[in-house]
Amino acid sequence: MPTLIEKITGSMAIEDANYATVAVDRLLSEAVTMGASDIHLQPVSEGLWIRWRIDGVLQPVGTLPGRIAPNIVARLKVLAGLLTYQTDRPQEGRLRDPARNLDVRISTFPILCGEKVVIRILSTGAASLRNLAQLGFPTHVADQLHAALNATSGAILLVGPAGSGKTTTAYACLRALVQITGGGRSIATLEDPIEVALDGVAQSQVRESAGFDLATGLRSLVRQDPEVIFVGEIRDPQTAVIAFQAAMTGQLMLTTFHAGTAVEAVTRLLDMGIPPYILRGTIRVIVAQRLLRRLCKCAKDSDPNACQADNLKGLANMRAHGTDEESQILTASPGALLNRCREPAGCEACQGTGYLGRCVTAEILTFQDTALAQAILDRADSRRLAELASATGAESISDTAIRLVNEGVTSPAEWFRLFGMDHPQHP
Ligand SMILES: [Zn+2]
């Protein structure tokens, strides 16, 4: 079987005039076929080192000869409409090829040995077109989220780190909103960038260089008589304040936010200057999510205690100075959480990784519980909020992931990868 790099270079000689054009074309096609979300091309002393991210994990592809590296980078810059002669400062561009259902963002960054290029593959169809039911959320999360979408005002927050699938969830929510209302509600978005085009939604792309940033755009958008507003991501206090004002004044506001857990989102918004009574009064639900790699059918059963002990050993090595609560619980009773262990093996179908596709773990927070609502008004810290959320009996994002391990859907190593190193409740 040809290696990945052989598939990309084929039988071409480096002197071939079309080398860069053909290699870039094959690299993009191969990445889409493999389901990669990002491609990294990094000049190193041996050549141009290529890696791609599949199912959230960066994996090596191979190295192209150093002589050809500048041509490959130049070809990508041409495709993205960037200045090829400008090699000493970062640039960003986009390439759309509807014929191949390809939409990528290309960013270049000058480093020691040349320019590093990162290609983000925005939409290759399948993943971004899922509806809510296809996302695989736990039933109670899906039901409460769906109920919140029927509200006519307030805020729905989708939170998680980068690459946690929150944007895919946001698009599924917008699609559900169009469906629920049959086009009867005015839905508008402010995005950076627009990742998927949606029928029945007025989507806007912010352009900071033209003075059209999220905060300015939001101020104008509320005068467009919207009933539902989707703000791609709240990144700064200014945008947060305007977005929550909209949520208070008769619009349903949907947004994504960078936070590890639902309670962390609350404390971060408080830190951004949103008054607690506004959070208490506007937030319908906060959904926090992460993606775990799904075990391939080649996975093998092994002893849960031995398996957990191995992972704990690795965890202890990585966290020499840590005093994390979760680690203490695990160390005290290693068998307490896991009662089943399936581990990755590797076969042709999964390219030897042992994993194929991903599954979602999630938690949902509402403020219907009066103790929790009062704690927010009292600006309680995230630890206290997490205790109160847990006291309501709600399954946490980490609990749901443990359940997926015990169901054999994913491996203990995946749980440790996401929750072992820095527990999201105590970042
Ligand atoms: Zn396999």
Keywords:
six-stranded antiparallel β-sheet; globular; 427 residues; Rossmann fold; single chain; binds zinc ion; 15 helices; Beta-Lactamase; 37% helix; seven-stranded mixed β-sheet; disordered C terminus; 3 domains
Overview of the structural elements:
The protein is of the alpha/beta class. The chain folds into 3 domains: 4-121, Beta-Lactamase (2-Layer Sandwich), CATH 3.30.450; 126-287, Rossmann fold (3-Layer(aba) Sandwich), CATH 3.40.50; 292-368 and 381-420, no CATH class. The protein is 37% helix and 25% strand. The chain has 15 helices and 15 strands. The strands form 3 sheets. A 7-stranded mixed beta sheet has the order 9-8-10-11-7-12-15, with helices on both faces. Strand 2 (47-54) and strand 3 (57-65) form a beta hairpin. Helix 8 (262-271) runs antiparallel to helix 13 (382-391). It is globular. The site of zinc ion has 7 residues, from loops.
